[in-house]
Amino acid sequence: MRVITAGRFGGLSLAAAALLYGSAALAQSPAGDAVKGKTVFARCTICHTVEPGKNKLGPSLANIIGQKAGEVPGFNFSPAMKSSKVVWTPETLDKYLTNPRTFMPGNRMIFAGLPNPADRANVIAYLKKPVK
Ligand code: HEC
Which of 41, 48, 83 to mutate to test the pocket of ligand 1 (most atoms within 8 A of CB)? Predict the structure, then answer.
């Protein structure tokens, strides 16, 4: 009897692990949609553009993916951002945009974050390839 019960639990936790792994994998490599991302980016446009050289309250985010943090010319970055040694990849952007303050304490971006993983994936897709 005991063995059967243990077996059932084993099966259940395997299924749960598969589910957990599935959602973790989804969060890790999200397939974003740049068109939807443009709508999400509307929350950033008070401070950011995707036009090269056009800084506002925040730095231009043109071609930001692959760049080192805090290096956009003509923008006065915080010491935290400048010294962070972060390179902006879809993964680091995903973490930063989840909660800018916890990912990089002391950075000056006044933004609560995007709690929805799909919003983050979509806005990252937009930053990769801004659609008109
Ligand atoms: C209220 C203004 C504001 C909003 C809204 C805002 N940001 Fe920022 N952002 C900033 C500022 C200011 C910085 C520079 C922070 C620093 O120097 O510490 C920054 C920095 C960044 C950086 C790092 C740039 C670099 O060159 O290293 C990224 C990436 C970024 N923001 C993305 C976004 C995205 C995406 C959104 C919308 C989801 C957003 N931000 C919303 C003000 C804002």
Answer: 48
Residue 104 Cβ contacting ligand 1 at under 6 Å: no
CB-CB contact of 122 with 40 (8 Å)? yes
The pLDDT value recorded for residue 93 is 98
What is the spatial distance between Cα 101 and Cα 42, in angstroms, rounded to a whole number? 20
Q: Which segments of the chain have a pLDDT < 70?
A: 1-30
Q: Is residue 50 in contact with ligand 1, taking CB distance under 6 Å?
A: no
The pLDDT of residue 31: 82
Tell me the pLDDT tens digit for each residue of 85-109: 999 999 999 999 999 999 999 999 9
Asked if 108 and 81 count as a contact pair (C-beta separation under 8 A), the reply is yes
Q: Evaluate whether 94 touches 67 at the Cβ level (below 8 Å).
A: no
* CB of 100 shorter than 6 A to ligand 1: no
Give the separation between CA 27 and CA 120, rounded to whole angstroms. Answer: 10
User: What pLDDT does residue 2 have?
Assistant: 56
Phi-psi sector, 51: left (phi>0), alpha (psi -120 to 50), beta: beta
